[in-house]
């Protein structure tokens, strides 16, 4: 269930609205059913979990799912000439470790699973609560009537700040650089009509083929300029240096991509002084608060890091990591894969949803393609062409580009 698992802490907290609409959080062979008589336009974590459970029951998948099993190791099985996989499995209830052999493996464990908490000088001196966004829950008693320092300005950061209003006593959001804080629902003006608008969810408006192909049709500067024009209207307060919030001012061409997060009320709450937004970094911590590099000091009760998650594929054997050139420390190019799914070193291993920007339909296409390849119903791609694509990705990795999506958006996935 990944992020939508209601029984474990994930990057989505209880009752959190998804970044995407039901149109991107849906498989092609099963439509959303009404929830309490209505179909949710932007579903919550619990509603997506319910959709996935209904999907599994509809196609009798539960009988093929073994829960309560942790994969300890995935390595090549070399006892015969045929390429197979040996998995070490651990029961979460009995702690018993067993070994099984499989002909093919699809990995869909998620791209990021381990909290990333940056090192801060003297953090051990802080007497308050330190937590990561993966631990966050609405109405958390630890945050009630507290002064909370939220570190980070991406989607989780602005969403958590939004959710804390009315629960925490005071909210301070610090960040190294601001993101465009876009609303999840947008009124888009129809062409050649001054008075008519269409309400669209952000995933249908941002993740378009036009935006996806800009980098293929124009040089870097022109592609960025056009992408910037597409998104700046979503945060007009952030692109006006004089009348907007100076800490949230979004400078043109800071990175190779336009940074965008999603929250319906963040900017409004900042304007109402319910959230204090500060472009600053922690340089030192004492037992009562933090010293920031803008010269200020914030006395706080809680430090809540919204600083992302790191790759965790420790279950992969070192030999597999070596052959696939997996780089755990490269945030954007951990994997070098053909069509973000398979690697020429293995004809029986596929990565499903192991890249950013991939919604349900992209994962479905990856799984269908891998199934056809594994069953022999579709010919495996030419190895030479696969290596050419891998080589191009390796070049991008070596260029150390600060790209938002490492291989391509879900538009790229669907089209390829």
How would you explain this protein's 3D organization?
The chain has helices at 45-58, 155-164, 202-206, 209-217, 220-231, 266-271, 318-324, 360-375, 383-399, 410-415; strands spanning 69-77, 84-91, 97-102, 105-107, 114-115, 129-132, 147-151, 170-175, 180-182, 185-189, 197-201, 260-262, 276-279, 282-285, 289-292, 297-299, 302-305, 309-310, 349-351. 28% of the residues are buried. Helix 2 (155-164) links the parallel strand 7 (147-151) and strand 8. It is 25% helix and 20% strand. The chain has ten helices and 19 strands. A five-stranded parallel beta sheet has the order 6-17-7-8-13, covered by helices on one side. It starts with 44 loop residues before the first helix and ends with a helix. With 416 residues, the protein is an alpha/beta fold.
Features:
416 residues; 5-stranded parallel sheet; 3-stranded antiparallel sheet
Read across the widest sheet, the strand sequence of neighbours is 6-17-7-8-13
**β-sheet strand percentage:** 15-25%
Taking all Cα atoms into account, the compactness measure Rg is 23 Å
SSE class: alpha/beta
DSSP helix fraction: 10-25%
How many H/I helical runs? 10
Principal-axes shape call:
globular
**For the residues shown, what is the average pLDDT?**
84
The major beta sheet can be summarized as: 5 strands, parallel
Give the total of beta strands: 19
| Cα separation of the termini | 25 Å
Uncertain stretches of 5 or more adjacent residues? 404-409
- What oligomeric arrangement do these chains adopt? single chain
Q: What is the H-and-E element order?
A: HEEEEEEEHEEEEHHHEHEEEEEEHEHHH
């Amino acid at each position: 269930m990944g992020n939508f698992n209601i029984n474990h802490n994930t990057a989505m907290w209880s009752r959190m609205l998804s970044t995407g609409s039901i149109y991107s959080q849906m498989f092609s062979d099963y439509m959303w059913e009404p929830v309490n008589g209505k179909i949710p336009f932007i579903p919550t974590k619990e509603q997506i979990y319910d959709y996935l459970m209904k999907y599994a029951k509809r196609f009798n998948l539960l009988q093929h799912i073994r829960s309560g099993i942790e994969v300890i190791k995935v390595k090549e099985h070399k006892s015969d000439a045929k390429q197979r996989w040996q998995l070490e499995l651990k029961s979460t209830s009995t702690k018993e470790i067993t070994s099984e052999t499989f002909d093919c493996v699809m990995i869909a464990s998620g791209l990021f699973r381990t909290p990333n908490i940056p090192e801060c000088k003297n953090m051990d001196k802080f007497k308050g609560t330190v937590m990561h966004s993966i631990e966050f829950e609405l109405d958390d008693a630890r945050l009630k009537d507290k002064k909370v320092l939220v570190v980070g300005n991406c989607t989780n950061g602005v969403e958590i700040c939004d959710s804390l209003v009315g629960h925490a006593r005071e909210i301070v959001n610090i960040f190294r650089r601001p993101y465009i804080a876009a609303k999840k629902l947008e009124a888009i003006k129809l062409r050649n009509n001054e008075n008519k608008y269409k309400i669209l969810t952000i995933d249908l408006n941002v993740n378009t083929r036009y935006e996806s192909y800009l980098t293929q049709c124009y040089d870097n500067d022109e592609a960025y300029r056009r992408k910037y024009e597409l998104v700046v209207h979503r945060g007009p307060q952030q692109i006006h240096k004089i009348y907007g919030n100076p800490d949230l001012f979004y400078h043109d061409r800071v990175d190779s991509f336009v940074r965008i997060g999603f929250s319906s009320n963040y900017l409004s709450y900042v304007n109402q002084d319910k959230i204090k937004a500060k472009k600053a970094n922690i340089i030192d911590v004492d037992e009562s608060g933090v010293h920031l590099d803008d010269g200020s000091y914030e006395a706080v009760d809680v430090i809540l890091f919204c600083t992302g998650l790191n790759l965790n594929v420790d279950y992969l054997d070192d030999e597999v990591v070596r052959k696939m050139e997996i780089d755990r420390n490269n945030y954007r190019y951990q994997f070098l894969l053909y069509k973000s799914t398979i690697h020429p070193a293995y004809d029986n291993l596929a990565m499903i949803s192991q890249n950013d920007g991939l919604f349900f339909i992209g994962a479905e296409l990856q799984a269908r393609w891998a199934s056809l390849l594994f069953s022999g119903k579709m010919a495996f791609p030419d190895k030479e062409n696969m290596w050419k694509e891998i080589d191009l990705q390796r070049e991008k990795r070596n260029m150390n580009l600060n790209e938002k999506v490492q291989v391509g958006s879900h538009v790229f996935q669907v089209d390829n």
